[in-house]
Amino acid sequence: MQLRTDLQTREEQAAYLAEALAGLFEGAAQPSPIRGGRRAALRRLRAFNVQHYARTRNDVVQRGVSLLSPYIRHGVLTLAEVRDSILSRFGHTPDTEKFVNELAWRAFWQLVYAHLGDRIHQDIEPAKYRTRVPRRLLPPEVMSATTGLVCIDESLRELYTTGYMHNHARMWVAAYLQHWLGVDWREGADLFYRHLLDGDPASNSLSWQWVGSTFSHKPYIFNRQNVERFSAGTYCARCPLAHNGSCPFDDSYENLAWRLFGVSLAELEGRR
Amino acid sequence: MNGVIVWLHGDSLSPTDPALLANPGAPAIFIFDEPFLAAAQLSFKRLFFLYECALEAIAGRNGSIRRGVVVDEVRAFAAEHQASTVHVTDSVAPRFQQYVAELQTTGLQVVIHHPPTFVSWRGEPPRRFSAFWRRVAEEALRPGSTGPELPSEEVE
Q1: Do B8 and B31 contact (CB within 8 A), yes or no?
Q2: Fewest CB within 10 angstroms: A113, B52, B55, B109, which?
Q3: pTM as predicted
Q4: Which helix or strand (DSSP H or E) is residue B68 part of?
């Protein structure tokens, strides 16, 4: 079936595509505010200021990140182009070198994918530690972004409405689903893959395995202090669970290691 | 039957796709992979993003965007243009390798182009990024050009 290529406005294109691709997608026929195409990619590249990247990239509010991942994932920009542009405009600084280091993660995931193929969708290594929480299916409150945890719900809502989630928030959500809720990483990875504009089999599945410790030395966990620090306190300030003592993340890493995995933090981190 | 077509896929969906650049006058096709998408049920946002990328990639040339079975659509498009050769840019995805193999069994010649390398790496990668980075950092931090020409602010 041939699709039309002559429609001019985004609204016309979206209405048309929803009909043309009926049966091939899930949910509402709403485009992301993030535009596809090379022109949009180059505008985004031009707008990205890498200064302070090393300090601000993990902050989900300040967002010193490039937002180039959807374009890189689909080959609209290559890693080499992005690297060259950033280094030629900003020179060699700790910020540009950290940024190139982050670009290299994608190159690494792609090499692993080239080597393992579809085996990336299975546990690559045995989990170093598994959560003590019983295994369960993806709960409906995750699908509807109504867990009651502001840090998780806001991240999920952004994913569902825009197709984007900040990398640090992805780590929080992936750890929450796996270690706190007992959801299999493949279910979480599938949810992200369906929504992320930069959804890539390798980057996505391997990152979930990195959080779960089937492709890393230890499970990734976080606590409330981490959320507070990297969201300028904004999520916790608005979160009812943060004020009534029922935040599941409000604990020390030592206690979380015991609660979630039944081992000391030193054991969890492979130091003992 | 000595014409050439370009097959664009979701891992290289740009007007600067190497297979496109190598064949400036060739017809080009992008296909929404019906069996895959019917099973995957991605969000509409993802499909619309691909559509916008594809529209721009084929703009100004004899291009086509289709919904269907990828190998069947590429073959049909090649036949429409009396083409015996399909140019395409490489992907590490197993599904891509499978489609290339299927196209070759139908008698089409497939020419695979390669995107510019970020780092040259041969063989099995290490299991940890830190080991990978230690070995590629020097090359990764060496620019190969000044990067693409960026639009001026007035363009917007």
Answers
A1: no
A2: B109
A3: 0.96
A4: strand B63-68
